Amino acid sequence: KLGGEYTREEREKLLLQYFLCAVGGMAIYFIASRIVVVLSLPGGYEAANFDFNAIFFLDVLILTPLAEELLFRSCLNDVLAEKFSYFFIPLSVLLFAAVHLSQGIGGAFFAAVCGIGLSFTYKMKKKIIFSVIMHSFINLGGCLDCIF
User: How far apart, in whole angstroms, are the C-alpha atoms of residue 129 and residue 119?
Assistant: First the structure.
């Protein structure tokens, strides 16, 4: 549906779902980052490695979540289709973690924990926008940690 085709109740429900994805993304970030700290896993991001400007935030909060969710959730789900759908979550999490190995074992583990939440969200909602919003707020949590 287009924006004008929704009833007021449908818009409110959709906004609530977006809000819950945002809160869920921040919660997943908090949980995953604390697990990495408790386990003393090396790696991850450090503020010194970034130039916090508008391009950085556009990339981290919009472009990267969109690209990664399209690849690791939507495309992978389409490739596995109905016949192999039971492999979707484990394979999605494994590939997502593998891509983040450049951040060290801590970064890969963090990505795996986040990937579980993102994959379940995608499977439950059947729309990429929900996991993109969640992913954006996970990344926002990382930005805020680096800044403060």
Answer: 12
Phi–psi pair at 22, nearest 5 degrees: -65, -50
Cβ atoms 108, 9 nearer than 8 A: no
Mean pLDDT of the chain, nearest integer: 92
Q: How many CB atoms lie within 10 A of CB 146?
A: 16
- Return the exposure string of 58-97: e unless at least 16 CB atoms fall within 10 Å of the residue's CB, then b: eebbeeebeebbeebbeebbeeeeeeeeeebbebbbeebb
Q: Using CA atoms, how far apart are residues 111 and 96, in angstroms rounded to an integer? A: 6
pLDDT given for residue 72 in this prediction: 95
Given a contact cutoff of 8 angstroms between Cβ atoms, the answer to whether 43 and 103 are in contact is yes
